[in-house]
TrEMBL record:
Cofactor(s) for this UniProt protein: FAD
A Pfam family per the record: FAD_binding_4
Record protein name field: FAD-binding PCMH-type domain-containing protein
Family listed: Belongs to the oxygen-dependent FAD-linked oxidoreductase family.
Organism, as annotated: Agrococcus citreus
Length: 758
């Protein structure tokens, strides 16, 4: 039976330690001549061999492309939880190039001599099943709480989970007898026997046993790759199986692939000449013949979707209709990549599918799919994601479609004389800062390097250089947009000027930005201060803070944070202040007025690069939970009345995070009608985040909102009517609605503060 697996070739290298470098050199040769996989037997009791795990690590560091695996790991002498962590670490360090072959043990006298416990064949199978449960449990970081497995042979009592490997490490089981074969069908990702140990008919009978066990476990037998260790020699005439000229090898391997379902052939060889000749004269011909035969037969070569994953699919989505251009990279519930794709920085999500286009044409395909699934009618939610950091969390959803443009992340200099750069919407601002820093350039971009370019550059961008250089959107010279109908347009002051106006402040309603042309500014070393204040006299502190900010030079952009109060302690406030000056004396001079606002309880001032300030994103995927609860206002000035209201809000204790970002300066130089972000007279952006929506809304609506002169939607999560009118003045909103009717008449982009009148 042909399972349709992509054909692969590996090599089985003896881990001899005399000379020590020999297996490493053979693995490097295997990579050069085109093998997909290098494997090594694991006999820890054999002093003539390297320790296999040490050897695997050394080979991984000495190669770049080839995958590596034990063939197979001696589980009785390898503690499963440690194996899991070691495997994950090696996979992460090698860029996802590790596979794990597992065996139940065989040479029991030697195992016992090394301190292992002698097991019967049945006990060995049970022990391996327990080990697999532990290994996969350690890798499953989506589950909360410690891992508990109370097995007879292997146990964990609340072991911490992780790290998560770079890719779903397949578990290939070395199996021959019925119980091990049934275990492979239930739990394995691959079956890895050696042809030399098998009698005629054993391969077919073994596969049948695996398939029956897989079916009983609710699995598609195609989920289990069939690997086979083979050995032989080249000669002018045939003297036996895989003993003859290359044509004989080709014929026999093709038969094994098509009749027995072998998808990976692993050549047992320590002979460089045999390895090279095999890959030059046998492997290409085998691939060619199998491809031709599958084409004639119409063999299904699509990867099998596990039954567990099928059960998690969203009922309202037609997965068979996902465009062919997007199928290979689509992320579904139950897939390995889903845990890293489902959430945003603050919001937990469970989308039905995450589509990951790599070109504007594929973005158009994704939008066509979303439309066909009912996104324009509101039957299916649609989220657009660049970095996934937005506080509002609209770039994920439950049961709907997410279009993640993260792969569109190129950063190119278009015209160095103008400092004009083209930036993909999927790039992060940390990556942009690093790329521009080498030229002493920067683009103001919030305060966190993990933010995606697309989200910020279509809404506003209140950053650490804002008072000197304006909002992020003020740097945009052109934007490439895929509209709801799938057309790609370039919007600038000269091309589609209305769309260009709307994309700078309300882009989420109008299309999917895929790239921006932006003007960077000359920025070298800057001062960055972190000051902590005793803010017990909150009204006086806030009023003086606002006045000091407004009186400061434009090169100074301060942000202020006030966390939740702690019982019995004074109220503290922490300031982060960027000063676009390179001379320490000038930096200190600009900071001196702020140091006088209130008693200082901590201070740190450093000379930094803008990239050093902004490139602060923590590694790893987003792990948001639940619904974020955040409120936002823009105010013109922190007057005594505003300071009083903010102090009362802080006293209410409905927040755990409260921030005041300085605006004004260059932000106010831009005419209110120049962009869809119209509140150019605002001096400050104020944001609060809480954990109880009722409490936060009650305090905010009563105390803070009455003083607002606008709203910044990127920091807002309130779903109640009225927020759109708060965010856009009447004339701006009317113009946006007219533009929306032109470029998105069916309201496909409705799931992120929709400007269409209810």
């Amino acid at each position: 039976m042909d399972y349709g697996h992509e054909l692969e070739f590996g090599v089985f290298i003896t881990p001899t330690n005399q000379p020590p470098e020999q297996p490493v050199l053979l693995a490097q040769l295997a990579e050069r001549v085109g093998f997909d996989l290098a494997t090594f037997q694991d006999h820890p009791y054999q002093p003539a061999f390297h320790d296999t795990w040490t050897l695997l690590t050394w080979v991984a560091a000495s190669t770049e492309r080839i995958r590596i695996a034990p063939n197979v790991l001696n589980v009785p002498l390898r503690q499963p939880a440690v194996v899991a962590r070691s495997a994950a670490s090696l996979d992460l360090l090698s860029g996802g190039r590790f596979e794990l072959g597992l065996g139940a043990g065989g040479f029991w006298d030697a195992i016992e001599a090394m301190g292992g416990t002698r097991l019967t064949p049945g006990q060995g199978v049970d022990a391996l099943a327990e080990a697999i449960e532990i290994i996969r449990g350690v890798w499953d970081t989506s589950e909360r709480g410690g891992l508990r497995v109370d097995g007879e042979h292997h146990r964990t009592a609340g072991a911490k989970r992780g790290p998560r490997p770079a890719h779903p490490i397949p578990l290939h089981i070395g199996a021959y007898k019925p119980r091990m074969l049934r275990l492979t069908g239930r739990l394995g990702d691959g079956w890895l026997p050696s042809l030399g140990y098998m009698q005629p008919g054993d391969l077919g009978r073994g596969s049948a046993t695996i398939d029956e066990a897989a079916a009983r476990a609710g699995r598609d037998p195609r989920e289990i790759r069939r690997l086979l260790n083979v050995g032989g020699a080249f000669s002018e005439r045939s003297t036996g199986r895989l003993q003859g000229p290359p044509d004989q090898w080709v014929e026999e391997l093709v038969e094994l692939a098509l009749a027995e379902g072998i998808g990976t052939f692993i050549l047992s060889a320590d002979d460089p000449t045999l390895m090279q000749r095999f890959m030059a004269e046998v492997a290409p011909a085998v691939r060619e013949q199998i491809a031709a035969e599958r084409g004639e037969r119409g063999t299904d070569t699509a990867p099998a979707v596990p039954a567990a994953a099928l059960a998690k699919r969203a009922e309202r989505l037609d997965y068979d209709a996902i465009p062919a251009s997007l199928k290979a990279t689509a992320v579904e519930p139950g897939s390995w990549a889903y845990a890293d794709s489902r959430h945003t920085y603050m919001r937990g999500g469970a989308p039905g599918v995450v589509l990951r286009p790599t070109s504007p044409a594929q973005v158009a395909d994704a939008l066509a799919y979303a439309r066909a699934q009912g996104a324009a009618e509101g039957r299916v939610p649609l989220g657009i994601r660049s970095g996934g950091h937005g506080i509002s969390g609209r770039s994920t959803n439950d049961g709907g479609i997410v279009i993640d443009v993260g792969a569109l992340d190129r950063i190119d200099v278009v015209d160095a004389s103008r400092r004009l750069v083209r930036i993909g919407a999927g790039a992060t601002w940390g990556a942009v800062a690093r790329a521009l820093d080498a030229r002493d350039w920067a683009i103001t971009s919030g305060d966190y390097g993990g933010v995606g370019v697309g989200g910020l550059a279509t809404t506003g961008g209140i950053g650490f250089l804002g008072r000197e250089h304006g909002l992020t959107i003020d740097h945009v010279e052109a934007v490439e947009v895929v509209l709801a109908d799938g057309s790609l347009v370039r919007a600038s002051r000269d091309e589609h000027p209305d769309l260009f106006w709307g994309m700078r402040g309300a882009g989420a309603n109008l299309g999917v930005a895929v790239a921006f042309e932006m003007i960077a500014q000359p920025v070298g070393s800057i001062g960055f201060a972190q000051l902590a204040f005793d803010a017990s006299d909150t009204v006086d502190f806030l009023e003086r803070w606002g006045a000091t900010t407004e009186a400061s030079d434009r090169v100074v952009t301060p942000f202020l944070i006030v966390g939740g109060d702690r019982r019995g302690q004074p109220r503290y406030a922490q300031a982060m202040i960027a000063v676009d000056e390179a001379e320490p004396e000038a930096i200190v001079e600009h900071l001196q007025p702020f140091a006088m606002v209130a008693p200082l309880v901590g201070q740190q001032v450093q000379l930094s690069r803008y990239a050093g300030v902004i490139d602060n994103a923590a590694g790893g995927p987003h792990r948001g939970q639940g619904e974020p609860i955040a409120r936002s206002v823009l105010v013109r000035s922190i007057t005594p009345e505003v300071a009083q209201a903010l102090a009362h809000f802080l006293d209410a204790g409905a927040h755990h995070f409260f921030q005041i970002r300085a605006m004004g300066g260059a932000i106010g130089d831009v005419a209110p009608d120049a962009t869809a972000f119209a509140h150019r007279d605002a001096g400050f952006s104020i944001t609060a985040i809480g954990s109880d929506r009722t409490r936060l809304d009650a305090a905010w609506d009563t105390l803070v909102a009455p003083h607002a002169s606008g709203l910044y939607l990127s920091f807002e999560t309130d779903p109640r009517p009225g927020r759109i009118e708060d965010a856009f003045p009447p004339a701006t909103l009317a113009r946006l609605r007219a533009l929306k009717a032109e470029v998105d008449p069916d309201n496909l982009f409705r799931d992120n503060f929709n400007v269409v009148a209810p």
